[in-house]
From TrEMBL:
GO molecular function, one term: oxidoreductase activity
Species annotation: Sporobacter termitidis DSM 10068
Protein name: Dihydroorotate dehydrogenase B (NAD(+)), electron transfer subunit
Gene3D superfamilies: Dihydroorotate dehydrogenase, electron transfer subunit (2.10.240.10), Nucleotide-binding domain of ferredoxin-NADP reductase (FNR) module (3.40.50.80), Translation factors (2.40.30.10)
Recorded metabolic or biological pathway in which this protein acts: Pyrimidine metabolism; UMP biosynthesis via de novo pathway; orotate from (S)-dihydroorotate (NAD(+) route): step 1/1
InterPro entries in UniProt: Cyt_c3_hydrogenase_gsu, Dihydroorotate_DH_ele_sf, Dihydroorotate_DH_Fe-S-bd, Dihydroorotate_DHASE_ETsu, FAD-bd_FR_type, FNR_nucleotide-bd, PyrK_electron_transfer, Riboflavin_synthase-like_b-brl
Gene: pyrK
UniProt: [2Fe-2S] cluster binding residues: C214, C219, C222, C238
Length: 251
């Protein structure tokens, strides 16, 4: 059974207008965390549910999460300061299978942070990161520290290549030498990455996002449709995922 921890916030760094990186001190969480897993954080004192946030980094007794303010819960989290204590359940879910060589990680928007944890752990061959525009770009330097090559795309062309992650990803797959694609981001991006990987016969794993309740497999709020051995099967994103083999996802 996953445990609840009460880590202290070490610092809260603003990465963009709406995105914050929180470093939490917790030797237990940092030791147990695996790339692709998430934590379920209680946001405030009221009736608010916990909010799922991916693990971006876990080392030296410190867990880093990166969150984008979307509503009440993430706004509350973005206002935490050094010394505040959080109520954190986790680490939760099944993460990425990193038993491949020459991995390409693909991240879009707020799906980028968990891919840094995966890229670091796998020593990724390349990272392909997509953002709406230059102002929304995050963590590019951190990826350059751990990947052989980093490709950035923006929807408006204000940074890197104009367009989506599909452009650089297809070029990398066409060049060959890659044995797995791992992706997290908006669903259309995941679907495009999965389709390209299938075309080039490279296994692909995708991290799905669904609204969550309990986070531990009990309430079924996060159910999603998958296909296993040719049969449709409802799976829980929180417990059976959030990472699934792309060929099992019903888009
Ligand atoms: C496994 C997992 C990992 C995640 N990792 C991160 C992360 O690393 N960083 C990060 O910023 N966010 C992450 N999210 C999304 C984050 O959990 C939601 O943005 C957050 O729960 C919104 O809560 P809120 O109270 O701020 O907003 P709410 O008031 O609850 O909602 C605000 C808006 O966000 C939408 N929304 C709420 N929850 C989700 C969700 N789970 N998926 C898609 N849209 C949602 C709502 O429909 C609404 O439009 C993750 C979600 C999942 C399921
Ligand atoms: S959130 Fe309750 S089963 Fe997944």
């Amino acid at each position: 059974m996953p445990e609840t921890y009460l880590p202290t916030v070490l610092d809260n760094r603003r990465l963009t207008e709406t995105v914050h990186a929180l470093r939490l001190q917790s030797a237990e969480l940092a030791r147990a965390a695996r790339p692709g897993q998430f934590v379920h954080i209680k946001c405030g004192e009221g009736n608010l549910l916990r909010r799922p946030v991916s693990i971006c980094r876990a080392e030296d007794g410190v867990l880093t999460v990166v969150l984008e303010v979307r509503g009440e819960g993430t706004r509350w989290l973005s206002q935490r300061r050094a010394g505040d204590m959080l109520d954190v359940l986790g680490p939760l879910g099944r993460g990425f299978d990193l038993s491949h060589k020459n991995i390409i990680v693909v991240g879009g928007g707020i799906g980028v942070p968990p891919m840094l944890f995966a890229a670091r752990a796998a020593g990724a061959k390349a990272a392909v990161l997509g953002f709406r525009s230059r102002e929304n770009a995050i963590l590019a330097e951190e990826f350059r520290d751990v990947c052989e090559a980093v490709y950035i795309t923006t929807d408006d062309g204000s940074l890197g290549e104009h367009g989506t992650v599909a452009g650089p990803l297809e070029r990398l797959l066409r060049e060959g030498g890659c044995s797995a694609v791992l992706a997290c981001g908006p669903r259309p991006m995941l679907q495009a990455a999965a389709a390209l990987a299938e075309t080039y016969k490279v296994p692909c794993q995708v991290s799905l996002e669904e609204r969550m309740g309990c986070g531990v497999g009990a309430c079924l709020v996060c159910a999603c449709k998958t296909v296993v051995d040719g049969k449709e099967k409802m799976r829980r994103v929180c417990k059976d995922g959030p990472v699934f083999p792309a060929e099992e996802v019903v888009w």
